[in-house]
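Checklist before submission:
- one chain only
- standard amino acids only
- sequence pasted in full

Submission:
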Amino acid sequence: MGAARDGFVGVFDSGLGGISVLRSLVAELPHEDFRYFGDSANAPYGEKTEAQVLELSRSIADRFLAEGAKAIVIACNTATSASAATLRAAHPDVPIVGIEPALKPAARAFPHGRILVMATEMTLNLDKYHELARAWGGECEVVPVPCPGLAARIERGDLDAPDLGEMVEGLVGGYAGSVDAVVLGCTHYPFVRTQVERALGPGVAFFDGGAGTARQLRKRLAEEGLLSGRVRPGSVEFASSLDTPDELALYRGFFSMPL
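Returned file contents:
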């Protein structure tokens, strides 16, 4: 068990978006070692088929486990919907934690409000999202907002560029002044919260699934006796299928930028 406790937590996403989740994981579990893999060569997952996303996710998970991962976090809403159940069935002895759009806390905070759910088209089309919307929509009005191209644009960095602000304005600007909350239903989207806020106006509450995923990882590691016993800070390593110095520098920049 000692060796397992000293293992790392593998975290993956279609690209750099899951770094928003990684930040929550490190904040919640500062003594764990994390290895982050961004599949930027195949991004964005939200524009692929469910079968393609499942196969990519399975390959990444298998590689993490072969390298000694004690747990896996699927830091991608689309990949969670497409692959979490299959991966858990294949590896019942490994804690596998996913992420879902944070509609539950948004609906609890605004039970009679109007809530935008920004997500990829694939996430919004899958049964998992529809079940979530049915379970937690309640008396509030849930407005799904597909955001084609947004994750891919965030992947390129340069988040202060005018074209990105214009893209966000085009996607959600029409809802300005008419919504109470926004669910950032793709792990890339917390990196453009400022642009979304600018497009919608002040007073809108934001929800994303990162903190909930981090709490769930802590719970699962504790249940399995896998929490690190170290007192030193854990390490964070980055890797990408787009394996260039520029890409890894972009990952590190997203990990450290203010949100």
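Reviewer check: The chain is about 45% helix and 15% strand.
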